[in-house]
TrEMBL record:
Pfam short name (any one): TetR_N
UniProt keyword annotation of tRNA processing present: no
Protein name, UniProt field: HTH tetR-type domain-containing protein
Record keyword DNA-binding present: yes
Keywords associated with the record: DNA-binding
InterPro entries: Homeodomain-like_sf (IPR009057), HTH-type_TetR-like_transc_reg (IPR050109), HTH_TetR (IPR001647), Tet_transcr_reg_TetR-rel_C_sf (IPR036271)
HTH tetR-type domain sequence ranges: 24-84
Molecular function via GO: DNA-binding transcription factor activity; transcription cis-regulatory region binding
Taxonomic source organism: Candidatus Thermofonsia Clade 3 bacterium
Domain of life: Bacteria
DNA-binding region: 47-66
Length: 222
């Protein structure tokens, strides 16, 4: 993971070995088949054996590319994650250029995370269940979100927007906890809370951090 000129972390891909043409073709066929089955049946109702059969590859071939369904889901999320990261960094740079406060930028980012995770909840849930352990490098998408929040909090502390000496990593985890797939599913699906309500609750906590310099204005949803 490297840093941008705005001191926010940028998720980078690990170097990959060159693949043979047939291996690349198999991987693309597996991904296309998995995506089609997930849309048709739902992520939870599709098993690795189903994907191998529909893609017409052996299970050994499937598992050489993806050790479990979580890794496969992460691969499907790559493009969406990259687009989300690019859009986020561009928006935060523009907000910094307009000299918007770091807590205002944090409000925007957390709302964007809520809505991104809502769109991709089934894939994220499967990925987290099987591969996104805290110590695992495959948890990089969530770690990028966490480091972005910490970076914005550090900027807010530097600029005097929040009290100095707060435990920023813990605060970042508290702010992001409702967006993690199992918790988000409980809030949005089990309890029926709308995305607006979930986002507003998180932003209420952020506004509380900025109370020393007055309440932050209500940020419209993006």
């Amino acid at each position: 993971m490297k840093r941008s000129s705005t001191s926010l972390p940028i998720l980078t891909e690990a170097p990959q070995r060159a693949e043979r043409a047939d291996a690349v073709a198999n991987r693309q066929r597996i991904l296309a088949t998995a995506e089609r089955l997930f849309v048709k049946r739902g992520v939870a109702n599709v098993h690795m054996a189903d994907i191998a059969k529909a893609a017409r590859v052996g299970q050994g071939t499937l598992y050489r590319h993806f050790v479990n369904k979580g890794e496969l889901c992460l691969a499907l999320l790559d493009a969406q994650m990259a687009e989300f990261q690019d859009r986020t960094l561009s928006a935060l740079r523009e907000m910094s250029a307009r000299r918007e406060r770091k807590l205002e930028q944090l409000l925007w980012f957390l709302d964007a995370v809520v809505r991104f995770n809502a769109r991709h909840a089934p894939l994220l849930c499967a990925a987290q269940r099987e591969v996104m352990l805290p110590e695992s490098p495959t948890g990089a998408p969530f770690q990028w979100q966490r480091m972005t929040v910490i970076g914005l909090l550090q900027g807010a502390e530097r600029d005097g927007e929040i009290e100095a000496g707060l435990d920023l990593p813990v605060i970042a985890d508290v702010l992001l906890a409702p967006t993690h797939p199992p918790v988000f599913s409980f809030l949005h699906v089990a309890n029926g809370y709308t995305l607006d309500r979930i986002s507003a609750a998180i932003q209420h906590v952020v506004r509380g951090l900025g109370c020393r310099q007055g309440r932050l204005r209500q940020r419209p949803h993006v």
